[in-house]
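Re: weekly structure request thread

Next one in the queue (207 aa):
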Amino acid sequence: MYMNENLFIDFLNSKEILWLGINFQKARFTKQGFDFSQEILQHYFHDWNLMIINDQKKYDIRMSFRKPVMQYDLSQVTKINKSIRASKAICQHIDIKDVLTDETICAYMPTLSYPTNTKYALSILVESFDSSTKTAALWIVIVKTDTGEVTLCEKFLKSPSGLGARNYWARTFYNLLYDIKSASFLRWENMVQNQIDANQAQTDINK
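Done, posted below.
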């Protein structure tokens, strides 16, 4: 996990967030469960992204991130996801070399361009859908839109469930947002507050 504490404090005070969608550019999929053509794989990318926009009551980003106003712009991920080739993304198994890191995410996000109608933007970056272990590796990423600087990124492992490939893996996005709403957001807030308290204590000592 990576957090820029100063930016995250500013993010907490912001009332708006821009939803950028689900980015599959760096994702890997096990052939078991994803032996799909180029067209079908990209159809799923598009469908999963529309799903969150069309069912905001179920996939409630505003509640998860404590923001009264959510805007959305899927133009970035739509372009990115259309460029993905199934021959590269689908593999026999998920290799350790494909695992992303905080450093990978922090280097990648500033290479993208962002709308600047809001100060902060949010996306889910998919690392892998592994049918053999029934696990989705998903990164939550918050960026400052004018610089692309990562404010927070964290990897979550979530289990799929349901009927059909669409709904089966869609459950992982629901589970992720529910986790953030019920636990992780408060954990992030506490991390920041603990650091503020520690800084204040150090200041008091140095007086």
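The two ends are 33 Å apart (CA to CA). The longest strand covers residues 120-130.
Next request, please.
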